[in-house]
Design brief:
The protein has four helices and no strands. By secondary structure, the chain is mostly helical. The protein has one domain. The radius of gyration is 22 Å and the shape is elongated. The relative contact order is 0.05.
């Protein structure tokens, strides 16, 4: 018997690998790496996290009546204008 260890970082690839193993009729075990959740975020992940955190803060402030947010049409128009430049 041969043991193959594969480290997968995204769900789409994990699903594909499982499908291949199932199609081949192979037995496999899945071990979730809890250490991955404890690792520091890389630069891109940190930027996304910060953006989401800022967005949720703005939404909370909007619900409390502290700020007024743009409506979707205004936001889309602003994005389209910036893309034309």
């Amino acid at each position: 018997m041969t043991t193959l260890t594969v480290n997968i970082d995204n769900k789409k690839a994990e699903k594909a690998v499982k499908a291949v193993l199932d199609a081949l009729g192979l037995d496999y075990n899945i071990e979730q790496n809890v250490d991955a959740a404890k690792r520091s975020l890389n630069e891109d992940e940190q930027r996304v996290y910060n953006n989401l955190k800022r967005s949720f803060t703005k939404i909370k402030m909007h619900k409390e009546g502290k700020v007024k947010l743009q409506n979707a049409k205004e936001a889309i128009s602003e994005i389209e204008a910036s893309l034309k430049d």
